[in-house]
Design brief:
Helix 19 (about 585-595) runs antiparallel to helix 21 and helix 20 (about 600-615) runs parallel beside helix 21. The strands form seven sheets. Strands 3-4-2-15-16-1-17 form a seven-stranded parallel beta sheet, sandwiched between helices. About 35% of the residues lie in helices and about 20% in strands. The protein is built from 24 helices and 34 strands. By secondary structure, it is α/β, with parallel strands linked by helices.
């Protein structure tokens, strides 16, 4: 439940006389205009429009980037203002990423988003739909067409299992056993497993003959039932029924036999149309039609059969109640209807300078403003609370009842009661805005702390085989690969091969004597790209021959020798003494809670094991492996924070300058709200800067030093190095590793290694 003070603060904007004038005007005029709005202010007033009118809103932007930016802020404001889980949430309806003349099908994720969005529009299950003009111009089918694509299942309904399976195939689901990801289903015995769109867990349907006997959700990892359900709606993943043998661009060629005769505005019903920057929207529509007119000789489908022209869409818009949103009011615009300027401006940017942020907050409060700070996680909200308490700035914790805050911070907030003009809230707000007439300043996360495009975003959950797929994603015909059982072969390509009633994709590998091996894509874990020492071409192994077996035996013998050496080394390290770090502090918990994403089980396990080793009195030497985007950097930063908590220094060694800069930006962003001094040594630094950093390091003024091989120079001396993090250790030579041995003497150390050899791997 939203904090009452926060909800009341934003709802009060909807009762402003100027905004109230717009609401009244919609009852008598078809066109109203709001100007003076920055992007976050547009999202805020769009949510208030829906709240005041109670009508579905179709918000049209000039492009995908603007639609995504508006939608991100709109989700946060809508959740605060509406605060009712039974009400439909805003949705983003993307445009297609291909044109009819390109002969390609849209990306599967875009198809899924559009299919679900069109179903919700057709069923009247929407509040605000944000869509770019490229989507608004697309012709559609009538509402009942999209309603029939979804499948509603209830207990004791009668439906044949084959009929159910066929319907799932036609709405974009793929048969795969076991079911692990959205869009998969399997049929076995009297059971159908399916993972519907927008479900957090898959659904298991048991039949007694043709009757649904039971339905329950189950856990993917354990395959055990979690809860029973009486009703389930399986949403489509494609916006048209999928043919049995789809060809590229079938979504467009379908209109030749089944014309599209409806429009998106027709699906939206009698709701309110909101146009963001109408002049830019019109220009974007004209640019789209210019692209549609290119390569006319290659067109199979006339573009007018797929898209409306701008005059056709504009005619439909003019017949609706509509509101235009502008940042700057145009001369003569008020003649088209009522126009109100709401006077907003971009929020100030502090670039990580917290004293400036506190000073600006005090200044705004003295001028009668309410100041609302957003942070993406409870931990970051608590850290902001620490900062404002330290600077004696009164604040309120405007968190929902579901967010658990420490008693320590709750007591601090109670000291100021509900009268404080500074509010700290949880929400994904990148950039904020200042509403000068309403006396409200909203500060986003990137207003406080800068971010960098080089910071890698955490990846999505993947199938187990996907970890290996990344390794061979850049394979080209002629590249060499290694099969676990058959050895070194040459990759020739991928071929689709029929398997009974279905077909599957196979990797074609060539071995000695031109023998061919077909590896199904489901067993990519058996194949890795060949990486040998030197530039020479490796000899191909023979299928069924003894060469590969001898190679593996020879390698195993060398590995046993290496294992003996490692046993001796670790026995010596076990007997030596190191520094035992303290248990986790409150700051450690705040730092980890401030992680804006949900940590995976693998991340949490790795962090737990590393912390356990750090708290022991023996030196640590740990290897952390994982693919790009799996969150190794976050694991490393949590270990680094633990070392810093006991006053130790941390070194992060990277093999390239670019990777060093990427880690520098990531560490700065993550540690921004804590008193940690982070520096970097690389060729990006001048000679004077390098000299100053090394001097500060020797005096203990640098807490975390990130750099390339320059860190291994003899003039770089740490006064109390507690943790050494090495990224891509396999890319360092013998001389470097000898220097590492000197650095790691009685120091904690772990190494990061990625399963792919690319420069942007995380530690």
């Amino acid at each position: 439940m939203t904090h009452p003070a926060l909800r009341d603060l934003l709802e009060s904007l909807g009762r402003d006389p100027a905004f109230d004038q717009i609401i009244r005007g919609l009852r008598t005029h078809t066109h109203q205009s709001l100007s003076g709005l920055s992007l976050p202010a547009k999202a805020l007033y769009s949510a208030l429009l829906w709240k005041r009118t109670g009508q579905p809103v179709l918000l049209i932007t000039d492009g995908a980037q603007e639609a995504e930016g508006l939608f991100a802020a709109l989700e946060t404001f809508f959740a605060i203002i509406v605060n009712d889980e039974t009400k439909p949430r805003p949705q983003l309806l993307p445009a297609l990423d291909v044109l009819p003349s390109q002969g390609l099908s849209p990306h599967s994720e875009i198809s899924e988003e559009r299919a679900v969005g069109l179903y919700r529009l057709a069923s009247g299950m929407t509040s605000i739909t944000v869509t770019p003009i490229g989507s608004a111009l697309l012709r559609t089918y009538p509402a009942n067409f999209y309603q029939q694509l979804a499948l509603t299942l209830k207990l004791n309904d009668e439906i044949g299992m084959e009929d159910l399976a066929e319907h799932l195939r036609r709405i974009g689901y793929t048969e795969r056993d076991p079911v692990e990801m959205v869009g998969e289903f399997s049929v076995r015995g009297g059971i159908v497993d399916v993972f519907p769109a927008e479900f957090e867990q898959p659904l298991r349907i048991e039949f007694f003959g043709d009757t649904i006997d039971s339905m329950r959700r189950f856990d993917v990892a354990t395959q055990r039932s979690v809860m029973k359900v009486d009703r389930a709606v399986i949403l489509p993943l494609v916006e048209h029924p999928k043919p049995s043998n789809p060809v590229p661009a079938w979504e467009f060629t379908r209109v030749l036999t089944d014309p599209r005769e409806a429009t998106l505005l027709g699906l939206a019903g009698e709701g309110l149309v909101v146009i963001d920057e109408p002049e830019q929207v019109r220009s974007a529509a004209e640019r789209l039609w210019k692209r549609l007119g290119e390569n006319q000789r290659d067109m199979v489908v006339p573009p007018e059969d797929v898209y409306l022209t701008w005059p056709e869409l504009a005619e439909q818009i003019d017949a609706r109640k509509r509101v235009t949103l502008r940042q700057v009011e145009l001369l003569g615009e008020s003649a088209a209807g009522q126009s109100v300027d709401l006077h907003s401006r971009p929020s100030p940017a502090f670039h990580g300078n917290l004293p400036n942020a506190v000073a600006e907050t005090r200044k705004l409060v003295e001028q009668g403003y309410k100041v609302l700070y957003f942070a993406p996680a409870v931990g970051e909200v608590e850290r902001l609370a620490d900062i404002f308490h330290e600077y004696a700035v009164p604040f309120q914790l405007a968190l929902s009842t579901e967010d658990t805050v420490s008693p320590f911070h709750a007591e601090r907030a109670k000291l100021f009661g509900g009268s404080a003009s500074t509010l700290l809230a949880k929400g994904r707000m990148v950039r904020g805005t200042v509403l000068t007439e309403a006396k409200l300043a909203i500060i986003g996360t990137e207003d406080l702390f800068d971010t960098s495009d080089l910071i890698a975003e955490p990846g999505l959950n993947k199938r187990a085989a996907a970890a290996f797929a990344a390794d061979i994603a850049d394979l080209k015909p002629g590249d060499f690969v290694v099969h676990v059982t058959h050895g070194v072969g040459k990759f020739l390509g991928i071929k689709e091969i029929p398997q009974g009633d279905q077909s599957g994709d196979f990797l074609i590998l060539e071995y000695s004597g031109e023998s061919k091996l077909y590896v199904p894509m489901t067993r990519l874990d058996l194949v890795q790209k060949f990486r040998g020492a030197g530039e020479g071409t490796p000899p191909l192994d023979r299928l069924g021959g003894a060469t590969w077996s001898k190679t593996k035996s020879r390698v195993k013998a060398k590995m046993r020798d290496m294992a003996d050496e490692l046993l001796k080394l670790y026995a010596e390290r076990r007997m030596s003494e190191g520094f035992a770090f303290s248990p986790d502090s409150n700051w450690q918990r705040e730092f980890e809670d401030a992680f804006p994403y949900t940590a995976t089980k693998d991340q949490l396990q790795a962090v737990s094991e590393i912390k356990r080793d750090m708290e022991r009195p023996q030196p640590m030497d740990r290897l952390l492996c994982g693919d790009v985007g799996f969150g190794k950097t976050e694991v490393a930063m949590r270990a680094a924070f633990k070392a810093l908590g006991d006053g130790k220094q941390v070194a992060v060694l990277t093999p390239t300058t670019v990777l060093s800069f990427q880690h520098y930006e990531t560490f700065k962003r993550r540690f921004a709200s804590f008193p940690v001094n982070i520096e970097m040594l690389s060729r990006f630094r001048s000679a004077n800067e390098t000299k100053k950093i090394i001097e500060d390091l020797g005096h203990g003024k640098v807490d975390v030093l990130i750099g390339t091989h320059r860190l291994l120079s003899k003039d770089v001396e740490f006064i109390d190095l507690g943790l050494l993090i090495v990224d891509e250790e396999q890319r360092f030579g013998v001389r470097h590793k000898e220097r590492l041995k000197q650095l790691r003497h009685n120091r904690r150390r772990f190494r990061g290694r990625c399963t792919c050899r690319c420069w942007d791997c995380e530690t």
